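Repro:
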Amino acid sequence: MAATLDDRLVRVRVGTAELQGNLRIPPAARGIVVFAHGSGSGRHSPRNRFVADVFVSTGLATLLIDLLTQEEEMIDLRTAQLRFDIRLLAERLGGVTDWLAGEPSAAGLSTGYFGASTGAAAALIAAADRPDGVRAIVSRGGRPDLAGPVLPRVQQPTLLIVGGEDDVVIDLNRQALRELGGIKRLVIIPGATHLFEEPGSLDQVAALASEWFLRYLEEKK
């Protein structure tokens, strides 16, 4: 019988928080990408799910997980404060990564982070804290500048993708690029705004990110 896609809801305990996520592992997976959402987004975001679908089609497993609990998300909708608590998001992401390392279905898979908006900063901090546990990072319209002094400690290959019409975020990514350690690249997608809502722009994001992860997650150490 042909192998089938492992697609299920998972609950991950990090400290006192129970986080919910969607884990998808295709047959003969070539690595796994954990999504770090930010700025009010989550695992149900159509943009994140679109990118995740592309990853799965290329043989990458995905874990879309909400780094805030449902109660915290309700608070954040009113205050917009928790989405900018980068240290909290980074600690949650790190806890999820530690859980994944002990998950039998993901055994042997190299881990990468796909961070959007403030989630990109959390991904960079969590990766810096786990130099042997995380192999590659991609930021979509991210705020890597919010990782601040941690940036030089990030040694994993890091791809920053920004829309060509997202002027402020372009400048912030250029500044962060100078500070990042290791292999790094900034790609600006012409005509795209912050959310990559223009026709074809998110396809470009998914293609660039897939190529990056397949290159560095499968690379031998």
